[in-house]
């Protein structure tokens, strides 16, 4: 059995951040664009975003979009 679609999306975005393809402060594509890119529903993208937000990897700004969060100082 393959993993849930939202986990695949979250992992892909996480890899883009760790590889430097997406940098802190970068804006993520719109939900519609992500749905199109991953061929999944809005629900799947929302679940992936909630997961990444809980991990502190992304930061949603009301009316502005979703951005890669600045890493917390270690």
TrEMBL record:
Database matches in InterPro entries: Bact_HTH_transcr_reg (IPR050679), Tscrpt_reg_HTH_GntR (IPR000524), WH-like_DNA-bd_sf (IPR036388), WH_DNA-bd_sf (IPR036390)
Keywords from the UniProt entry: DNA-binding, Transcription, Transcription regulation
Keyword Transmembrane helix: no
UniProt-listed PROSITE patterns: HTH_GNTR
CDD domains reported in the protein's UniProt record: WHTH_GntR
Cited Gene3D superfamilies: Winged helix-like DNA-binding domain superfamily/Winged helix DNA-binding domain
Pfam family name, one: GntR
Domain HTH gntR-type: 3-71
GO molecular function annotation: DNA binding; DNA-binding transcription factor activity
GO biological process: negative regulation of DNA-templated transcription
Keyword match Transcription regulation: yes
Protein name stated in the entry: GntR family transcriptional regulator
